[in-house]
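pls design
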């Protein structure tokens, strides 16, 4: 039988500082205010799905969190730092602690999976040695192999990336991201360009990483079944604000379905 949790353990996650806290975030493009005051925070160790119609601003929001798109106004507090106030060098350092998984993975196609994963270390290390597989320090190679093993691809390490399937390539991209040793993972439709089974595997893998390592995940997905199965919490974006915030276990499937139908009809 498991030992009862101590009071500290029970209250720990509630007291822990959020990994991410967003206040009054706005972003306007010429002629259009896409984000109109977004507020939410993410505690550590939670997988949160972000849903919303096409064009509702999900990708813009994700990019604003790491200032790949500059917010027009508002505050983003990331890993205890005020992201919006950081000078360029500190911003780069903080970004290195955030792993980002895109729909398109931007791997280097003509080199091996292992070399691609080793590239992930450049966020933490500098110098050309971090770049070239044959020159990479043994510790870096070992860590890259461990990351490939975690995504189930250790046996494909030396194959060229363009000889792997789409799902395997996405997993290599996740292994590369793990080389950053991130505390927060942002994923923009990592399941979108994959067949249903492979997309499901990628979502399941992200969920496992969150569970095993206590990471936090914010993942955009257009697939209702993935959202329900692989998230702890669901945020819905509509009219530039968070219009839905529910624990997944309490989610009303009918209401969610409506959100998704609007998303798919948009
Ligand atoms: N760089 C830009 N310049 C002008 N408008 C932009 C720019 N980036 C995004 N937009 C607009 O902002 C709105 C939100 O786009 P965004 O890509 O964030 O939506 P999304 O919710 O991710 O959509 P999807 O589900 O289709 O991926 C859209 O109307 C889009 O055209
Ligand atoms: Mg998008």
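designed seq:
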């Amino acid at each position: 039988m498991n030992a009862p949790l101590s009071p500290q353990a029970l209250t720990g996650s509630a007291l822990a500082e959020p990994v991410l806290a967003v206040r009054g975030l706005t972003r306007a493009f010429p002629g259009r205010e896409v984000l109109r005051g977004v507020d939410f925070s993410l505690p550590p160790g939670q997988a949160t799905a972000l849903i919303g119609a096409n064009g509702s601003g999900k990708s813009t929001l994700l990019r604003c969190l790491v200032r790949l798109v500059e917010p027009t106004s508002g505050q983003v507090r990331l890993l205890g730092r005020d992201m919006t106030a950081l000078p360029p060098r500190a911003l780069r350092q903080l970004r290195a602690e955030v792993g980002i998984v895109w729909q398109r993975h931007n791997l280097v196609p003509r080199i091996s999976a292992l070399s691609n994963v080793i590239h992930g270390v450049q966020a933490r290390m500098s110098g050309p040695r971090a770049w070239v597989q044959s020159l990479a320090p043994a510790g870096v190679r070992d860590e890259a192999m461990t990351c490939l093993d975690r995504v189930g691809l250790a046996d494909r390490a030396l194959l060229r990336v363009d000889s792997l399937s789409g799902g395997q390539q996405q997993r290599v991209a996740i292994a590369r991201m793990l080389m950053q040793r991130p505390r927060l993972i942002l994923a923009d439709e990592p399941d979108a360009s994959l067949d249903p089974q492979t997309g499901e595997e990628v979502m399941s893998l992200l969920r496992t990483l969150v569970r095993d390592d206590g990471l936090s995940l914010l993942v955009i997905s257009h697939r209702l079944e993935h959202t329900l199965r692989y998230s702890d919490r669901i945020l819905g974006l509509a009219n530039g604000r968070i219009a839905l915030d529910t624990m997944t276990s309490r989610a009303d499937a009918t209401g969610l379905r409506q959100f998704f139908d609007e998303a798919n009809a948009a």
